[in-house]
Structure formats: structure tokens, C-alpha cells
């Protein structure tokens, strides 16, 4: 890509998979953006992202190493697929409940 895209989702949607190979990240929003357009995710083990993801079966989760990323890519090429559904509505409700709990007496 040689230019800025206002809406990269059309590109992510056309990808066979999205590889999130970060060594460190807070919440990897791009993982959820990829899941939102039904693009399978291969990702390194980032605790903050996995905590929100809630289920390691929603992505191919690998060790944070060259070998781990290779293993994840090979698994994907060999036909392994994560579950394709992340329940965004359930996550929204969970977040709302946590937020509202701060204001309960």
C-alpha cells in the first residue's frame, strides 16, 4: 500500500487471513476489526487482546516467535480455521454491565 486508506476494511475483508504478529500491544483493535469483517485471524499471544477475545478458538493463537508464526501460517494453509463468530453484542453488553457496576450503590 502506497497511500492512506480512509476505510481499510474492504482490503481486510478480501484477505485470506490477517496476521497479527505484534511482540507487544495493548488491546489489538485490528484483531476485532478483522473479525468484524469475517477475516480469520492468526495472532501472537497478547494477553490484553486474548482477555477481551475470551476464547482462543476465535483465532489461531501462536507463540510470539518466528517458529510460532510459521506454525500458525502453516496450520492455516493446511486448512485449520478458527471459529468465525465473535459475539460483538455480548461483548457490548458485558462492557456496559461493567461500566454500570461502577455507579451502583
TrEMBL record:
Pfam families xref list: Glycos_transf_1 (PF00534)
Entry-linked InterPro entries: Glyco_trans_1
Annotated EC: 2.4.-.-
Keyword set includes Nucleus: no
Gene3D superfamilies: Glycogen Phosphorylase B (3.40.50.2000)
Molecular function (Gene Ontology), one example: glycosyltransferase activity
Glycosyltransferase listed as a keyword: yes
Transmembrane regions listed in the UniProt entry: none
Domain Glycosyl transferase family: from-to ranges: 9-79
Leading EC class: transferase
Entry keywords, A to Z: Glycosyltransferase, Transferase
GO BP annotations, alphabetical order: lipopolysaccharide biosynthetic process
Protein name per the record: Glycosyltransferase
Source species of the chain: Candidatus Enterococcus avicola
Amino acid at each position: 500500500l502506497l497511500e492512506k486508506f480512509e476505510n481499510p476494511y474492504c482490503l481486510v475483508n478480501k484477505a485470506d487471513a490477517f496476521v497479527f504478529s505484534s511482540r507487544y500491544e495493548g488491546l489489538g483493535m485490528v484483531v476485532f476489526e478483522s473479525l468484524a469483517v469475517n477475516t480469520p485471524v492468526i495472532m501472537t499471544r497478547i494477553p490484553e487482546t486474548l482477555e477481551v477475545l475470551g476464547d482462543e478458538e476465535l483465532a489461531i493463537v501462536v507463540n510470539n516467535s518466528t517458529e510460532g508464526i510459521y506454525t500458525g501460517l502453516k496450520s492455516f494453509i493446511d486448512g485449520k480455521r478458527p471459529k468465525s463468530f465473535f459475539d460483538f453484542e455480548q461483548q457490548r453488553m458485558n462492557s456496559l454491565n461493567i461500566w454500570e457496576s461502577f455507579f451502583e450503590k
